[in-house]
Design goal:
Blueprint: H1 3-6, E1 7-9, H2 10-19, E2 27-31, E3 46-49, H3 55-59, H4 66-73, H5 75-89, H6 98-101, E4 125-127, E5 139-141, E6 146-147, E7 154-155, H7 160-167, H8 170-180, H9 191-194, H10 204-224, H11 229-242, H12 247-254
Parallel strand pairs: 2-6
Antiparallel strand pairs: 1-3, 2-3, 4-5, 4-7
Helix pairs in contact: 4-5, 10-11
Length: 258
């Protein structure tokens, strides 16, 4: 909660680190759901001030006054949060709880709420937003981004590249739109419905081809920021092959307009 204080831009991040280099220990890159694209992301140079729940008690060496400890150890961030609250308190509804008394916090007001999936942010994973109105929007992350998305929208484990190919394919998107999305909001995908998506068990030869093409696609994207459409078509074809679709079925799905 309280994004206005904890999510900062590049300039603010640089100022905090310049003022106190220890600030870098606490600041993490963050993506919002709208930044996540098909195999890609639109990073807006936003950063999260991240004191996880339990951080203070773990590192304050039993100091009695925890806020004074924070002010001494991370002075720039402490001052930023206090000033943010002073500014925001003048703008919000008088009945709002504000930074210090908000419900969504950890052991102390500067900490984020208890989060069982916090370690998942540092794993290799697939992430996706809740809304995909015109195309699939699953991306692979191994850079430790943090996200403002629901915990269920993070997939970790094995065969991630194989899964990524299916989830981002026009074939699976067609199935998702027809059978698993909706119920009030166009293009809304709920995790419990995604779990019902039928994905064939990986064949070693097919998986190898898929992974090779996805790695090439992601490598090119990292270099020039562009998605190779030819590689996208190859990956879609490999997914269609796994489902044993006919040429007529493939053509219909690939060219379907939403």
């Amino acid at each position: 909660g309280y994004n206005e204080a904890f999510i900062i831009d590049e300039s603010t991040k640089d100022d905090l680190i310049l003022s106190d280099p220890k600030s870098a220990e606490i600041i993490r890159p963050i993506l919002r759901g709208r930044n996540i694209k098909r195999y890609a992301y639109d990073y807006q140079n936003e950063w999260l001030i991240c004191f996880p729940c339990g951080f203070t008690n773990r590192f304050s060496n039993n100091k009695h006054n925890k806020e004074q400890w924070l002010k001494g150890e991370y002075s720039a961030i402490y001052n930023h949060l206090v000033k943010a609250e002073e500014r925001l308190s003048k703008e919000r509804n008088p009945k709002a709880k504000g930074l210090y008394k908000r419900d969504d916090q950890g052991d102390y007001w500067w900490e984020l709420r208890s989060c069982k999936y916090m370690d998942d942010f540092n794993k290799r994973k697939i992430i996706y937003p809740c809304i995909m109105t015109t195309e699939p929007r699953f991306m692979f992350d191994q850079n430790g981004y943090y996200y403002t998305i629901a915990p269920g929208n993070i997939i970790s484990g094995n065969h991630l590249m194989y899964l990524l190919a299916f989830l981002n394919s026009k074939i699976c998107y067609f199935v998702l739109r027809k059978f698993f999305m909706g119920g009030g909001i166009e293009g809304e995908l709920k995790t419990n419905r995604l779990l019902s998506l039928p994905i064939p068990l990986p064949d070693s030869n097919l998986e190898s081809l898929i992974v090779t093409n996805i790695e090439l696609l992601l490598e090119e994207y990292d270099k020039n920021g562009l998605i190779n459409e030819s590689l996208l078509e190859k990956i879609d074809f490999l997914v269609a092959k796994a489902y044993k679709l006919s040429e007529t079925e493939i053509k219909y799905i690939i060219n379907y307009e939403y």
